[in-house]
Amino acid sequence: MSHQQVFEQFKKRAENATPLGGTLKFLVDENPILIDGSGDENTVSMSDAEADCTISVSTEVLEKLRDGDLNPMMAVMGGQIKISGDMGLAMKVQSLIG
């Protein structure tokens, strides 16, 4: 899956989800996707701006999470996902992936 495809999937899901209440940055194979949910709706860009929470993950792991082949908690515990910042925001990510 290309970075553009990953971006489009996040954009589609985020725009239809409840605002996150903060900014969340995904680093997918070091490529940034910023979801700004601090306003009335979530907006998605490829900005590398500072965020309240940053989640680093590979495209391969992201696909496994999306397909239900990998448990998110096990991926975090196993070091396949790295999270820094606001853990409360990180807990809202399931609605953007699943």
CATH class: Alpha Beta
Alpha-carbon distance between the two ends: 16 Å
Spell the H/E element sequence.
HEEEEHHEHH
Unreliable parts = none
CATH architecture: 2-Layer Sandwich
How many β-strand stretches? Answer: 5
Strand order of the largest sheet: 3-2-1-4-5
Binned strand content: 25-35%
How would you describe the shape? globular
How many domain regions? 1
Sheet with the most strands? Answer: 5 strands, mixed
Q: How would you name the CATH homologous superfamily?
A: SCP2 sterol-binding domain
Radius of gyration: 12 Å
The total of helices stands at: 5
Helix vs. strand class: alpha+beta
Looking at the structure, the CATH topology is Nonspecific Lipid-transfer Protein, Chain A
Structure description:
This protein has 98 residues and is an alpha+beta fold. It has one domain (3-89): Nonspecific Lipid-transfer Protein, Chain A. The chain is built from 5 helices and 5 strands. The protein has a 5-stranded mixed sheet with strand order 3-2-1-4-5. The longest helix has 13 residues, at 3-15.
What's the layout of helices and strands?
Elements: H1 3-15, E1 23-28, E2 31-36, E3 43-45, E4 53-57, H2 59-67, H3 72-77, E5 81-85, H4 87-90, H5 94-97
Parallel strand pairs: 1-4
Antiparallel strand pairs: 1-2, 2-3, 4-5
Please give a handful of descriptors for the protein shown.
98 residues, single chain, Nonspecific Lipid-transfer Protein, Chain A, 37% helix, alpha+beta
Brief account:
The protein has helices at residues 3-15, 59-67, 72-77, 87-90, 94-97; strands at 23-28, 31-36, 43-45, 53-57, 81-85. It is α+β, with helices and mostly antiparallel strands and 98 residues long.
